[in-house]
Each structure stands twice: as C-alpha cells, then as structure tokens.
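Archive entry: two folds, one per protein. Generate the first.
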Amino acid sequence: MSTWSEFFLITATALVLLTLIQAITFTVGHRIGRYNVVDVSWGLGFVAVAAAAAVLGSGDASRRFLLLALVTVWGLRLTWHMYRKSLGKGEDPRYTDMLERAGDHSIATIIRKVFVTQGAAQWFVSLPIQVSAVLGPTRGFGWVVLWTGLAAWVTGLMFEAIGDLQLRRFKSDPANRGRIMDRGLWAWTRHPNYFGDATVWWGVWLIAASVWPGAITVASPAIMTYFLVYATGARLLEQSMSKRPGYPEYQERTSYFLPRPPRPVSGDDRRAHGRLGVTSGSISAGAG
C-alpha cells in the first residue's frame, strides 16, 4: 500500500470513529437533557484517532507510539476533568447561547451546530497525528524539532493541569466566595488552560513536522489556537466575565493569553479586590 493510500485509510477510519463517538455522545446528551457532555468526549475522540493511526500506520513506530502516548495522557486527563466539572451541573451557557442565536432548538440544528462541528474539528486538528503515522523515521535536524515539540507538549500539559487544579482548589474554599482567581498561573495569564491546550497541539505538530511533509499540517494547530483564543474559548468567556465586579481590574494587570509577569497592582485595585467578597457565587477567571 502506498503512503497516501495508507493515509486515506487512517483518515477514513478516524472519520468513522469520530462519527461513532459523536453519535453516542449525542444520544447520552439527549437522554440527560444537556449537550455539554460533548466536552467530555472531546479528548476521547483524539485518543481514538491516535490509536487508529498507531495501529494502521506503517511509518516510524517510535513516533507513532510516542504521539499515541502523549495524546492519551492529554485526552484522558481532559476527559476526567470535564466529567468532574460538568457532573450534576446544568447546560453550559455557551451551548444555550449558540442555539439561541441560531433561533432553532430542533434535533437537526443541535446535531449540526454542536456534534458535527465538534467531530469535524477533532478530525482536522488531529491531521498531524494521521500524517505522521505514514511517514518515515526522524533524522538529523528533525530530532531538534521533535524534542522541541515534546518540550512544548510538556509545558502545555503543565499549564492545563496546574491551572485547572489551582482553579478547582480556589473555588472549593468558601473564603474565596465572590473573589477573582488571580493567583498562581492565573496571575500570569487569564486563560492558562486555553494557553496550555494550544501549546500542547503546537507540540504535537512539531513532533509530526520532524519529518517532511508533516509540517504541511500547520493549519491544524493554527485553527485550534484560533478557536481557543477568538472563537469558542477565551473570547466568549471574557464577554461574560467582564461584567463581574473586579474583572476589569484583573484584565488590566494580567495578560490575556500569553503568560507574562503581572503588572503592579495599584492601591485602588487592592481596595477593590478586597471588596469582592460581598458578591454572591465563586468568580473564576477561566473556564477550568
């Protein structure tokens, strides 16, 4: 079988697996009455694609199974985190607003707007994994690219995992009721989980790019980053959070996406931050 015939087999298998996963997810969501369950299956879809690529591909075995291991660690951690986050909760406002804007809550619209979109995104973002599975061994300077990608993946996973852990601990403390989470990684970026997610996928792309023509899949991490920053991630969250007391001050002193040291806090900001305790509910700066 030629290289590209093998790729088409992998990508066709990926599409079938993702369709099956999204169909099951829709069925569960329809039964429980909320469709944010699609966030739980987000990571699982990538694990399924990486497994198919590792098994069906005949490219460099060490790189195939390295990507499988990395995607599995990332995907299962995210799946467990999203499951815990959504357990016992209602519908995610993002999906409610999406359907309200569409002006149609029919089954067809829900499938198209939520599940088909998610499945298509999973397939496109995973293209570096699929292409890498049919390519030969990494050589020469490609090893520098691969190790850089691995370092980026580790950095991204740490930002995601630590950011989510810090936010969960912050929200579980009654003393933080009504306060803005601006500690730890959240003092360096308002969205450490989204930054980490983007960095993970740039790392995956670099590993695939360590052998030509893996680099041609650069649109995959670029699209993922666009969605995380502008389309469905940080930008939507900022729109709702900007109305909360103290959040504009947090925006002024903390980077939007790329981590950097926080700006000095003025005396007025400190006094405003201290008054946030009267606000009902736990206010967090991110979606974690």
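Generate the second and append.
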Amino acid sequence: MTVPGGSEPEGAPAAGGGRRAAWAIALIGGLTVLLFVAFASAVRRPEQGPEVGRPAPDFTLLTFDGGTVALDELRGQVVVLNFWASWCVPCADEADELEALWRRYKDRGVMFIGVDYVDTEGPARRYLATHGVTYPNGPDLGGRISDHYKVTGVPETFVVDPDGRLVSLAAPGTEPVDRLKAPLTAAAAFTPSDLAALIERLIRPATGSDSHSRRSRQRVVR
C-alpha cells in the first residue's frame, strides 16, 4: 500500500533489495555446486603412476639389516629397483641374475635395491639367504612404495637414470615401457644381457666435477 505523498509504508521491503537477495542466493547455490563437482572430480582422479622420462617416485626404504636407503640420495647413480616376494616363483628365477649384475656393477656407480612386496619377514630373510642376495633389501611397510610405483604383481623391475628419471625397458624404436613385468632370465624377452647393456649406456664416466656422486656412492656401498 502507498501512503499519501507516494512513499512506501515504514518497514516494507524495497523491491530492489528482494531482487538482490535472490541473486545472492542463486550465486551461492551455483558456487556450492561447482565446488562439489570439483571436489568429486579430485577424489575420483587416480594418482599419476610412473612414466618413462619423468622423475621416479621418491621413497626411503628401511632395510632388513636396519639401515635406510633413500632414492633422492642416489642422484648421479643408476638405480635398479626390483619388487619381489619370497612366495613368488618367477622372482626366484631371476634372483641369481640380479645378484650377479649387482656384483658386476656395484663399484661403477650402480645401486640395486630390492623391495619385498606383501610378505613376512621370516620367509623373506630366508629367500635372501638362499639366493645369496647382498644388495640392500627391505619390506614395503604399508605398501607405500608399491603404491607410488603402481605395482600390480611381482616381479617388477624399474631402472632410474643418474638424473633420477625412469628409463624405458623397451627395445629402441618400440613403445616405451616403464617397467619390466616378466622375470629377468636368459629365456625372457628382456634378458640379463639386455639389462647389462642398458646399464652400460647409463653409466656416467667419473669426472672431477662428480665428486658428490662418488662420495654418495662410496657411503652407500660401504
């Protein structure tokens, strides 16, 4: 109702104020929907797995002998990362080959690391003793390392170059492969000789400017 003189009665809401309130409610509702959609998409998006040419996921492994091995402290070295388990028959097939390659290259800037996957300590220790494995090995506590590397079974082997990037284990000219899922045997598609040739290509010659890498290598090997 309009009072004489054309003014609104005291206490009546202004028409413009009502429209502004409606717009504000609509804007808040729209923003809420957008935030919900963004959050749901982030939850559903899988964590990016390892990719050839990209940095290898970092980790620190507590070894069976009570030491630790941190990947980020091994820059300047070639790293062969092998996931295995004591119950895995194909793992046993490649264990002796991996140990032989470790002994061949351990003084040439190459580190081998074994990650025990979904296993128990007693059988794992017996497995290492049976195969005479001497390079650092430890359990994947909580499955954190295998999760980062998207391991789906064992054995799986990755190779990291001196710059900390994952190297393809495929033959030159073929589709890049970020890991070796078959055991490393003389009859396999990727043989111990293939791994040795890859390591040879990746090894950096020692130079005067590479003193940090040499000190790190000496500390880990000892």
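Annotation attached to the second fold: DSSP finds six helices and six strands in the chain. The CA atoms of residues 49 and 147 lie 9 Å apart.
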